[in-house]
């Protein structure tokens, strides 16, 4: 599993697959103040990206995947 709760942060490690989206939703619904740490993340399945865009948690980076860091992190940054 690539989605784990560590303290009050959700850590995504390695490639985030479609089945990780549900785990991410459950953890974010349980506590909307949780941050998501993408420093060890690989490629994100679009379902995981959609969860991040829907919940807009604080995202800790830089992301471990160059594509995620360059193209997706700007979409996830809170205004």
Brief overview:
By secondary structure, the protein is of the alpha/beta class. It is built from three helices and four strands, in the order ββαβαβα. The protein has one domain (3-66): Transcription Regulator spoIIAA (2-Layer Sandwich), CATH 3.30.750.
Strand content: 25-35%
Average residue-wise pLDDT: 93
Structural class by helix and strand composition: alpha/beta
H-E order = EEHEHEH
State the CATH superfamily name.
Answer: STAS domain
Give the count of structural domains.
1
CATH architectural arrangement:
2-Layer Sandwich
Sheet having the most strands: 4 strands, mixed
Q: Output the radius of gyration.
A: 11 Å
CATH class: Alpha Beta
Looking at CATH, which topology would you report? Transcription Regulator spoIIAA
Unreliable segments (pLDDT under 50, ≥5 consecutive)? none
Distance between the termini: 30 Å
Shape, principal axes of CA atoms: globular
Helix content: 40-55%
Count of discrete alpha- or pi-helical segments spanning 4 or more residues: 3
Number of strand elements: 4
Biggest β-sheet: strands ordered side by side in the sheet = 1-2-3-4
Protein described:
With 79 residues, this protein is an alpha/beta fold. The protein has a single domain (3-66), classed as STAS domain (Transcription Regulator spoIIAA), CATH 3.30.750. Helices cover 43% and strands 30% of the residues. A 4-stranded mixed sheet has the order 1-2-3-4. Helix 1 runs parallel beside helix 2. It starts with a strand and ends with a helix. The relative contact order is 0.20.
């Amino acid at each position: 599993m690539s989605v784990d709760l560590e303290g009050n942060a959700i850590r995504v490690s390695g490639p985030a697959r479609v089945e990780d989206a549900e785990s991410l939703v459950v953890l974010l619904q349980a506590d909307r103040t949780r941050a998501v740490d993408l420093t060890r993340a690989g490629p994100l399945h679009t379902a995981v990206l959609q969860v991040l865009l829907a919940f807009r948690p604080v995202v800790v980076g830089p992301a471990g995947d160059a594509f995620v860091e360059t193209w997706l992190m700007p979409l996830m940054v809170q205004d």
